[in-house]
Amino acid sequence: MPLAVSRFWRTPAFPAGAGPDFVNACALVDSAMPPDAVLSVLHGIEAAMGRVRTTRWAQRVIDIDLLAAEDAVLPDRQTVAHWIDLPPDAQAVQTPPGLILPHPRLHQRGFVLVPMAEVAPDWHHPLLGLSVAQMLAALDPAEIAAIAPI
Fold this sequence. Notes:
This protein is α+β, with helices and mostly antiparallel strands. It is built from 6 helices and 5 strands. The protein has one domain: 7,8-Dihydro-6-hydroxymethylpterin-pyrophosphokinase HPPK (Alpha-Beta Plaits), CATH 3.30.70.
């Protein structure tokens, strides 16, 4: 059940040059399903809308991410820390074998944090100890300036 939904935001494609601008939003949802089942539902929605997974970060019709599930760290702290610390060149070619929570890049991406701040500004990253508002404030202001409400 949706508890809150952000506005829609126009954001530059990621990675840069991967296609036209994106529309991003964030929803806070209450669910009794475990996170892997939620992710399966999200992937089903993507497939129904025409998403075909080819290469990592390729242009896509839709991309729905599960960013967090309360304070869950999945599959474990060491694995999540590994994916958080992965160098950018490795991020572009390596795909996690399964669900990683919280999303290992959410703290680095304005296109995630801007809409997330509207629905969960006080959520704290369970490994970094920072709130959404704090993570957003730590980003380059030029990145945030490129994000605009629709």
